[in-house]
Amino acid sequence: MKPINQTQISFSSNSVNEGYARAAVAAFLSQLDPTVADLSDVRTAVSEAVTNAIVHGYRDRLGTVYISVKIYEDGHAQVRVRDKGCGIPDVKQAMEPLFTTGGEERAGLGFAVMQSFCDSVRVSSTVGKGTSVTLIKRFTPKC
Ligand SMILES: Nc1ncnc2c1ncn2[C@@H]1O[C@H](COP(=O)(O)OP(=O)(O)OP(=O)(O)O)[C@@H](O)[C@H]1O
Ligand SMILES: [Mg+2]
Q: What mean pLDDT is predicted for residues 31-49?
């Protein structure tokens, strides 16, 4: 299926840019006239994925985070958050609730949050090359 509209942004992995990323994705998706709840779900999921890229992917250095957003005719959206950071050695394990390499500061719930707020979450990662998280959200039509 071809998207009917798409955009891309990229930004430095400073945590101050999390808010920018969330707002930019939400602004683009607002053309779908989403419900407040749906938009809030996407904002939360994007926030988790971007935080992961910044704190885990680029944990020891600054890098660039890339986001692409695609909108499809049937009203669903795909948001892909990519980093070129350290990568994840075992994606299945990383996606298990409560698994974290972030120590006491982290709950290990980011992927679980993404999964509960989106219709699908796919992760592909290569150690030393980076990580790509693809979120799919179907928007509830307003009646
Ligand atoms: N982009 C990434 N690059 C490298 N490792 C990642 C990335 N995203 C997630 N991970 C790994 O997957 C683990 C689980 O991520 P998840 O978001 O579920 O929990 P967390 O970030 O550790 O804690 P929380 O999100 O609750 O603060 C992380 O601790 C980290 O080891
Ligand atoms: Mg996280």
A: 96
Confirm whether 52 is a catalytic residue: yes
Residue-range definition of the domain harbouring residue 41: 5-138
In a domain, 45, yes or no: yes
Catalytic residue among 22, 43, 48, 82: 48
Distance 49 CA to ligand 2 centre (A): 7
| Residue 143 resides in a domain | no
What pLDDT digit, counting tens, does each position of 49-63 carry? 999 999 999 999 999
Please count the structural domains in the chain: 1
Q: Cβ atoms within 10 A of the Cβ of 99, count?
A: 16
Q: 6-17 pLDDT, tens per residue?
A: 999 999 999 999
Task: Render pLDDT for 88-129 as a digit per residue (tens, 0 to 9).
Answer: 999 999 999 999 999 999 999 999 999 999 999 999 999 999
Nearest CA to ligand 1 atom 23: 108
Cα-to-centroid distance, 2 and ligand 2 (Å):
30
Among 8, 10, 69, 66, residue whose Cα is nearest residue 43: 69
9 part of a folded domain: yes
For the chain, the straight-line distance linking the first and the last C-alpha, in angstroms and rounded, comes to 26
Q: Which two tokens stand for residue 120?
A: 């699908």
